[in-house]
Amino acid sequence: MDDEFNELIERMDGALRERSLSSVSKVITDYDPHDVARLLEREDPRDRAIIYRLLSRNRALEVFELLEPEMRSELIQGLRDEDTAKVFEELDPDDRAQLIDELPAGVAKALMSGLSPAERALTAPMLGFDADAIGRYMSTEYVRLRGDMTLREALEHVRARGIGAETIYQLPVTSAHRRLLGVISLRRLVMGDPDDLVRTHMRDQPITLHSIDKAEDAAREIMDAQLLAAPVVDSENRLLGLVTIDDAQQILERTETRRAARQGGAEPLRRPYLASPLFGLVRSRVVWLLLLAVSALLTVQVLGAFEDKLEQVIQLALFVPLLTGTAGNTGSQAAVTLTRALAMGDVRPRDILLVMWREVRVGMMLGALLGGLGFVLASLVFGIEFGEVIGLTLIFICTLAATVGGAMPLIAQAVRADPAVFSTPFIATFCDATSLLVYFGVATWLMGL
Q1: CA 388, CA 376: separation in Å to the nearest integer?
Q2: Are 342 and 409 in contact (CB under 8 A)?
Q3: Which of 169, 181, 214, 399 lies most in the core, judged by the most C-beta atoms within 10 Å?
Q4: Regarding the domain with residue range 3-126, which homologous superfamily does it belong to in the CATH classification?
Q5: Which regions in the chain score pLDDT beneath 70?
Q6: What are the beta bridge partners of residue 185?
Q7: Domain named CBS: which ranges (predicted)?
Q8: Helices (H), ranges, 306-319
C-alpha cells in the first residue's frame, strides 16, 4: 500500500477509536474516492456503514460504484432502510442488476418494489437473463437513432436524451421496430451535413452481441476489437442494450481472479483478504483440499499394489518423489498453457486432436532430455539396468502428462466446465498415480520383477 493510503488508515483508526463522527467526516473528505473505497473494504461491517453514511450524496455514489458486488451487498444490508433505498435508486441499471444477484431474496424484492417505475423498467430486462449471460451486464440507458432521421434531428435527439446515457460516443441505429441496422459515431454525427440522413453515415457494427451469449466470451470480443461499446440484441435482432468496454474489462477481471484462484486449488474470496472472515478463508480452501486428499488415495493404492516390488529392489522407492513431481509439473505446465490459450481464443475444443498430437511431441522431447539426464545419473550410482528404468520412465510419463494436461482444459470447455478446475491441482494428483503405474510397469519389464 502507498504512503497516502497508509496515512488514511491511521487517521481513520484514530477517529473511530475516539468515536468522533466529525473527525471521521473530515478524514474521508480529504482523500480520493478510490482510497475511500479501499478503506471501506478493510473495515468491519459496522464501521463501514458509519463511514459510508458520512459521505456526501454524490461522493457516496461514486465510492459505492467502485466496490466489488459482494462488498456492495454487505454494505447495503448494513445501512438504514432510507439510505439503502436512496443508494439503490441512484445506481446504474446494470450495476443494480448485479447487486441483486448478491442480495438475499427478501432484501432484493423489497428494494425492487421501492424503485420508481422508470428505474424499475430500466432494470427489469437484465433480470430475465442467467447470471453468466451478457444480457445481465448490458446497460439499458442508451440513446438510439433511427436511420431515417437527419443528422440535425439526430444531434438534437442526443442532446435531449444523452445526459443519463451510458455512452454517446457510439450510437446504435435502428429501424422503427427497434431492429439494429448499424452504428454511427458522435464524430460523424457532428461533422456530417446536417441535412444528410443517418443511414448514409452509419456503418455496420463489427460485433453484435446476442443477449444469451456467455459474458466472458462477449467481453473478450469487445476487448479484442477495442470497441467503446457493443449493442446487445435478441433473437430477432431487436436492440436491447449496450455493453461498454469498461463493463467488458470488469467481467474479464472477475473471470481471471476466479480462474487464478482455482488454478491454485482454492475458490476465489468474495471480498478483500483482510475483510474476509476466518470461516470464509477456510471455506474457500477446504473443499478443494478434501477433493485432492481423496484423489491422492489413488497414489497410496498404487504404492500398496507394488509393495512386493519395492521390497525386492528398495532403490525403486528413492526415485518416487522425482518421478511423481516431474509428471505433475509437466502436466501442470501443459494445462496452464492451454487454459491461457483458450482464454485468448488461440484454440477451441474442436482442436483437441491437434493439441494432443502437439503435446505428445512436446512431452517426448522433454522426456528425452530429462530421461537422458536421469539415465546418466542413475547409471553412475545404481548401474546401467536401473538407469534404463529411470530414463525410459521419464520419457513415458512426460509424454503422458503433457498430453493429458493439454487435453483436459479443452475437454472442460467442451462440457461447459471451468478449464481452471482441471488444471494444476487435478493434473498433479492424476499424474502422481499414473506415473507410479508407468514406473513400476517399466521396472517389472526391464528388471524381471
Answers
A1: 9
A2: yes
A3: 399
A4: MgtE N-terminal domain-like (1.25.60.10)
A5: 1-2, 19-21, 77-87, 101-108, 110, 114, 258-315, 417-418, 420-426, 428, 449
A6: 170
A7: 138-200, 202-258
A8: 307-312
The C-alpha cell at 113 is 418494489
Three cell numbers at 305?
499394489
Overall fold of domain 145-259: CBS-domain (3.10.580)
Cα–Cα–Cα angle for 402, 405, 409, nearest 5°?
145
Ramachandran class of 185: left when φ > 0, alpha when ψ lies in -120 to 50, beta otherwise = beta
How far is Cα 200 from Cα 207, in angstroms, rounded to an integer?
A: 20
CA dihedral for 439, 442, 445, 446, sign (positive or negative):
negative
Annotated domain spans of the chain:
3-126, 145-259, 277-447
CA dist 282 and 275 (Å) reads 14
In angstroms, the Cα distances linking 33 to 18, 132, 200, 254, 394 are 23, 29, 43, 21, 56
| pLDDT confidence of residue 362 | 93
Q: How many residues does the chain have?
A: 449
Nearest in space to 173 (alpha carbons), one of 239, 234, 228, 226 = 239
**Phi (first) and psi of residue 385, to 5 degrees:** -60, -45
Distance CA 444, CA 419 (A): 36
Instruction: Give residue 67's pLDDT.
Output: 79
pLDDT tens for each residue of 160-196 = 888 878 888 888 999 888 889 988 988 888 898 989 9
